[in-house]
Amino acid sequence: MKKIGILFGQENTFPQAFINRINKKKINGIMAEAVMIDKVMQADPTEYAVIIDRISQDVPFYRAYLKNAAISGTAVLNNPFWWSADEKFFNNALAIKTGVPVPKTVLLPSKDRPDDTTENSFRNLKYPMDWDGIFEHIGFPAYMKPFAGGGWKNVYKLNNADEFFKNHSETGQLIMMLQEEIVFNEYFRCYCLGGNEVRIMQYEPRNPHHLRYVHDGPPLSKKLLDTVKDYTIKLNAALGYDFNTVEFAVRDGIPYAIDFCNPAPDADINSVGQENFEWVVETAANMAIKRAQEHKPGQMNLTWGTFVKNAVAPTTKKPAAKKAPAKKAAPAIKTPVAKKAQTKAKTPTATAPEVKKAPAKAVATKAKKATPAKTTTGKKTTAAKKTSITKVKATTATTKKPVKKATTTKSKSK
Ligand SMILES: Nc1ncnc2c1ncn2[C@@H]1O[C@H](COP(=O)(O)OP(=O)(O)O)[C@@H](O)[C@H]1O
Ligand SMILES: [Mg+2]
After folding, report:
1. Nearest C-alpha to atom 27 of ligand 1 is from which residue?
2. pLDDT at 382
3. Which ligand gives the minimal distance to the CA of 139?
4. Is the CB of 414 under 6 A from ligand 1?
5. Which one-letter DSSP state was computed for residue 335?
6. Residue nearest to atom 25 of ligand 1 (CA)
């Protein structure tokens, strides 16, 4: 019997429907249930061939449990190691290398110093930072949001430098990104499951939460939808997420990836609607069943993206020295195997970077699987801590009356 488990938090519709759907299919040797944990012993395999993770972004204990499960053979979806490693800023850089357009984005040091650091911890940081250069590059209006965020928390739309300084000063220890605004006429939220199953949902983020999923939108060009699907698959292939949503804002016909780091995306029937919900339940159930059937006990059963796979490929080259006597070992790098590995390693970066602004025909990676979005796990800032890293131009920042809650899009909903 191959067991499929689901680990979840406050959700009340998707997990239950997912379990029921799998069990209703009555597939020989397959069953699904909610994961139950009563103790976690190092290197102990779990009873699950597959675990779908919907909550470890909020519960670090679960993340450690899942890594332990993975090393012992459970196929954890999404890969808990990758999910621990990436964040939105890195993922934007990866999108560029992959040939998917993203808004211009810069990373900002946190306003307040992390706990247990002093001024000396930041001697490598130029003070003041090149704010003028940053603003010139990004332009206003701009969006400011956490590099490890989700659920619209701490997302700001800013109209000028004063608003930036005022709002940034309230972000405490969060690492923020400043991003070019994409003024869009279409917006899509796309589910991507198993790396290749894509559901494009028209979405209007400017509507109130319950009206964001557009059901009878205007007809869309096939070319645009094909491009959105292609970019969704490319991103997820590079990242290696099995379960993810990717958001695109379309400007002048070009879809820009806005938010594609959502490995536990909202799947609640009350927000995505009946039809989308049905798709997610059925597709996720089939994906989990397939993974359970392919499961190899005791082996690594995780999905890795092409970013990681290509990066480690060179180290897997055949030990050329083995064959050749020690003296001849030196030129081993010239053997066909080694050469091949080298070229391969370079492929992704070699073909992609030109894409920078414009989209891209350049198909850099070939990957097949992939990706998602996250919710903030960052500790809430300690407001008491006033030690500032990004002290900002005192003139603009402190003298101007703070712009009133600069049109923030702060909200809890995803
Ligand atoms: N660069 C941008 N241009 C235009 N709108 C944006 C941009 N970044 C964010 N938004 C708006 O803010 C919303 C929340 O931002 P998002 O990046 O999706 O963060 P979260 O991960 O918290 O959902 C998006 O759905 C979109 O409506
Ligand atoms: Mg979002």
Report:
1. 205
2. 36
3. 1
4. yes
5. S
6. 205
Render pLDDT for 323-342 as a digit per residue (tens, 0 to 9).
444 444 433 333 333 333 34
Please tell me the predicted confidence (pLDDT) of residue 403.
Answer: 32
Distance of CA 154 to the CA centre of its chain: 17
What is the CA angle 160-162-167, rounded to 5?
Answer: 100
| Residues 223/350, Cβ–Cβ less than 8 Å | no
Q: How far apart, in whole angstroms, are the C-alpha atoms of residue 407 and residue 385?
A: 26
Which residues have beta carbons under 5 A from ligand 2 (an ion)? 259
Handedness of CA 293, 296, 297, 301 (dihedral sign): negative
Q: Mean pLDDT over residues 27-56, rounded?
A: 97
* 3-state DSSP assignment of residue 406: coil
Of 86, 155, 207, the one to substitute when testing ligand 1's pocket (max ligand atoms within 8 A of C-beta) is: 155
Rounded to the nearest angstrom, the distance between the alpha carbon of 352 and the centre of ligand 2 is 26
**218 — pLDDT class (breaks 50, 70, 90):** confident
How many Å lie between the centroid of ligand 1 and the Cα of residue 414?
10
Q: Do residues 265 and 191 touch, judged by C-beta distance below 8 A? A: yes
pLDDT digits (tens, 9 = 90+) for 75-100: 999 999 999 999 999 999 999 999 99
Write the burial class of residue 337 (CB in 10 Å: 0-12 exposed, 13-18 middle, 19+ buried). Answer: middle
Whether residue 409 has its Cβ less than 6 Å from ligand 1: yes
- In the prediction, which pLDDT does 318 show? 60
Q: Is the CB of 103 inside a 6 Å radius of any atom of ligand 1?
A: yes
pLDDT score of 18: 98
Q: pTM to 2 decimals?
A: 0.79
CB 9 within 8 A of CB 55: yes
Q: Helices H, strands E: what count in the chain? A: 13, 12
Mean pLDDT of 120-130: 95
212 C-alpha vs ligand 2 centroid, how far in Å?
A: 12
Domains of the chain: 2-86 (3.40.50.20)
Q: Is the CB of 280 under 6 A from ligand 1?
A: no
Task: Assess contact for 231 and 341: CB atoms under 8 A.
Answer: no
Packing angle between helix 161-168 and helix 131-138, nearest 10 degrees? 110
Q: Which ligand is nearest to the CA of 155?
A: 1
Q: Is the pLDDT of residue 375 over 90?
A: no
